[in-house]
Structure of GDSL esterase/lipase:
Amino acid sequence: MAASAAVLLLLLVISVAAAAPAPAPPSPFRTVYAFGDSFTDTGNTHSTTGPYSYGYVSNPPYGATFFHRSTNRYSDGRLVVDFLATDALALPSFLPPYLSLASSPNATNKYYGVNFAVAGATAIEHDFFAKNNLSIDITPQSIMTELGWFDAHLKTRGAAAAGKKEVGEALYWVGEIGANDYAYSFMAADSIPPERIRTMAVDRVTTFLEGLLKRGAKYVVVQGLPLTGCLPLAMTLARPEDRDNLSCVASVNKQSMDHNHHLQAGIHRLRQAYPDAVIAYADYYAAHLAVMRTPARYGFAEPFKTCCGTGGGAYNFEIFSTCGSPEVPAACAQPARYVNWDGVHMTEAMYKVVAGMFFRDGSGAFIRPSFGSLIAAARKGHRN
């Protein structure tokens, strides 16, 4: 009987083991480089260097949900790029901000990549805004500044570490960039038409992307702009009659849609010019739109109201009393029920939803080609 029981137990163990799913193969990406603005910045900007009217990112309640302290991220917790690093790619840590590494070049932490994104950064060079008296923002960096930082960083890592192989096998995450360009030129629409800003901004982004490709990048994800007309800041400043069927600012959402259309045309040209590279377009607009159409489906009760704001009303937002300021030392009790965190940036809950659309949805509705196909291409490319 004992022997029979042992055999039965052995067969049971074997059958359970056979039924268990095989562990997922490790990600082909062990290094990630990120670029962009405040939607992607993980700490390059502090309260003393941040954008006008958002100069309190070093103060609580920023970071309160996940980190329980400010990490100089413009949210209550993690961003899409954080979910990319630790969830989608299973890296052991988040990407460190470049300026923290630059100030500590002898840091011995294991290397998984760097985040070059800066809150307030523009696609167009800062000099353009300064020459047109539009430099109300104290952030002088543009996307090309970040490319220069990338070059400097590779140089400090040395020729052996920063060889073509490392550059070619990394994933390049280009967060949304360009929204600040339109925001800074808002008051000069008569002298500098939005169409000119769009042409210049898309040109700079595609020039930046080509710069990465020329340096050997082979796997690139480029985010478009979200529904900037659904941000409480835009909705507070726009005329009440300027609304679309989402109750967002129609003219601003159209501006983002046009920008994304031209950006995708530029990406298409780059794909033709660099056929060996995989350039995925992450459709932030489509992801944001899906949430705003049916917020309850994604767990949100407040699609418009600011979680960390003041003033009550439809948006709970005052442009001169923003999150972290003496007037707003605390946030709402349940940030996960809110889409928007501080009037411009999203809650961790919203970033998590967007990350799920980008990294787990294989339909092509939110990222094209799908993230899964990019992973598969990288596995194949790394074996060759």
